[in-house]
């Protein structure tokens, strides 16, 4: 077994979908990747140095090389293995891998966020906006569904970085919306997703999501936490009961 090599630090959140492939490939390449859990909206100076906007994921190598943007970080980590098959065999493969990573990252991640975040109280709720976001997701998934009718994987006949990077980007969909009926209507996307997220390279770094029978979220405003009613002050509790 190869000695693990100290490689760098990844600034991220533990369940960040854009970081799954980066962590998976680093582990497979025996690169020791320190994980720095980012407190939302409070990037450290080192993190800010890697990504001027303080966004995640961002990377700083042991050699001081700083890199932001998930696709760039994923490719950099993957390319550390000179013999990797994950970047394809030809220039066309490599370009296709980049295309799919870019497609999922730009056409799916944002609308999926716009679909679920208002429903869990992480963004202002507007029924039409949520509905519109769900339609944008469906349109992008239709492209993937058609492509995967005749292709097992996104690029070539075997798993590449495109699959490892892109499948986890659908996690929020499968977590909140893609129920049994949806999966029956999108058999190719579902087959591909399940195949990829169950690969040992992924399961080594990411928890599997249980598949939904029914959607976990529907297009209704999130329940507001009940405002505490102004009540008359109760008598002081005996010490044993005080929280």
How does this structure look, described?
By secondary structure, the chain is an alpha+beta fold. It has two domains: 5-78, Glutaredoxin (3-Layer(aba) Sandwich), CATH 3.40.30.10; 91-203, Glutathione S-transferase Yfyf (Class Pi), Chain A, domain 2 (Up-down Bundle). It is built from eleven helices and four strands, in the order βαβαββααααααααα. It has helices spanning 20-28, 45-50, 70-78, 91-107, 109-116, 127-147, 161-166, 171-176, 180-185, 187-197, 200-203, and strands at 5-12, 31-37, 58-61, 66-68. A four-stranded mixed β-sheet has the order 2-1-3-4. Strand 3 and strand 4 (66-68) form a beta hairpin. The radius of gyration is 21 Å and the shape is globular. The relative contact order is 0.12.
Write the layout of secondary structure elements.
Elements: E1 5-12, H1 20-28, E2 31-37, H2 45-50, E3 58-61, E4 66-68, H3 70-78, H4 91-107, H5 109-116, H6 127-147, H7 161-166, H8 171-176, H9 180-185, H10 187-197, H11 200-203
Parallel strand pairs: 1-2
Antiparallel strand pairs: 1-3, 3-4
Helix pairs in contact: 1-3, 5-6
Helix tally equals 11
Second CATH tier, the architecture of the largest domain: Up-down Bundle
In terms of structural class, how would the helical and strand content be classed?
A: alpha+beta
Low-pLDDT stretches: 236-243
SSE sequence, one letter per element: EHEHEEHHHHHHHHH
**First-to-last CA distance:** 52 Å
Share of helical residues: 40-55%
The side-by-side strand order for the widest beta sheet comes to: 2-1-3-4
Radius of gyration: 21 Å
GO cellular component, one term: cytoplasm
Family: Belongs to the GST superfamily.
Protein name: eEF-1B gamma
Organism: Photinus pyralis (Common eastern firefly)
